[in-house]
Amino acid sequence: MFTIYPRSRITKWLMYLFTVSFSLGMSATAFSSDRGASLYAENCAICHADNGKGGMGIPLSLKSFLDSASNEYLRQTIRLGRPGRIMPSYYWMSEDDIDAIIQYISGWRTSPAPVWSNFEFKGDIKAGASLYQSHCASCHGKKAEGGTGSGMRFSRPRDLPITAPSLNNQGFLNSVPDQMLQHIILNGRDGTPMPDAKSLGLNKRDVYNLVSFIRSLQADQLTSKSLYHSEPPSIIVDSPYSFDETVENIKRAITGSNFVLIRDQDLLDGFDTRPLEGTRQKIIYFCNFSFLYEALKIDPRVGMFLPCRITVTEADGKVQMMSINPKHLSQLFNNSDLDQSCDEMYELYSGILEDASL
């Protein structure tokens, strides 16, 4: 049996439901926006600046960038990063968090995000290679390796809002569709040194050929899973010796591995706090300066965990030795050139810890 309400009552119910639904939608949007702002501040602002104007990283709020960057391009870029450049891979981030960051970045858009298809251009790669050397190599590099000042090894001049990106970067090539490449070449990037095709004297066929040449540089099919290896963040080894004996054993193992012992200090040295009762912690610093300089030339970010260090802890009578796991850091850096150095560092740490525990 149906109950028939007066029209005025129905109207009130509809208004109520509309108000509740609208409020819930606004709350969800506001929450997502706040979440995106927080995630952006935590993960992106250090390179791209709070306002997206760029710094070590490219300016994300640049209109000509946003007019070409689809949400899917942003998603893939966050997922894959730029191997060998400053942009890491956020392979570990949830889809919801990535969507929240994209929504926050989209707040700088003045027009809807473009949507590109997966259509592949079939241009003349050889002709495109010739055009590239004539019109693009002076900025993007003869081998499409990108300009200096990417934040990788050099800082760019302050009056240069963006450095020519690496076009042979597999993270870029696995993120950018052909239509987006065509759009960028046709329109250039206002606010950057990137000119449009017309000013370079390029016609539509030339652009097709350039896009096909750039696509031919793609060697790998990357996914976020292919960038991830199950490596713990630290190496931890139990010591059969006392705390003081373990510290001395590590020092001997360090010098025996042709490393220079720099110093050792209490973990809390310089902090206005005291260790918990029954606990001890000490850090031992050491270095091989030749190795350090070579690693820094590959990627300055290794300076974040150099000089080398091993921490010895004691709690409830149990002594442990621990260090960072260079193999874990290797995938965070997303730089295949650094992988061998990180593997060598892993073997070094493991060897020292093993020697100290014998």
Topology, element by element:
Layout: H1 7-43, H2 45-48, H3 63-66, H4 71-80, H5 95-106, H6 125-135, H7 137-140, H8 170-173, H9 178-187, H10 204-216, E1 234-239, H11 243-256, E2 260-266, E3 279-287, H12 289-298, E4 308-315, E5 318-324, H13 326-333, H14 336-357
Antiparallel strand pairs: 1-5, 2-3, 3-4, 4-5
Helix pairs in contact: 1-5, 4-5, 6-10, 9-10, 11-14, 13-14
Explain this structure.
There is one protein chain. The protein has 358 residues and is α+β, with helices and mostly antiparallel strands. Helix content is 46%, strand content 10%. The chain contains 14 helices and five strands. The chain has helices at 7-43, 45-48, 63-66, 71-80, 95-106, 125-135, 137-140, 170-173, 178-187, 204-216, 243-256, 289-298, 326-333, 336-357; strands at residues 234-239, 260-266, 279-287, 308-315, 318-324. Strands 1-5-4-3-2 form a five-stranded antiparallel beta sheet. Helix 4 packs across helix 5. The longest helix is centred in the first third of the chain and has 37 residues, at 7-43. The protein is elongated. The termini are far apart. The relative contact order is 0.10. Residues 1-29 and 150-154 have low confidence and may be disordered.
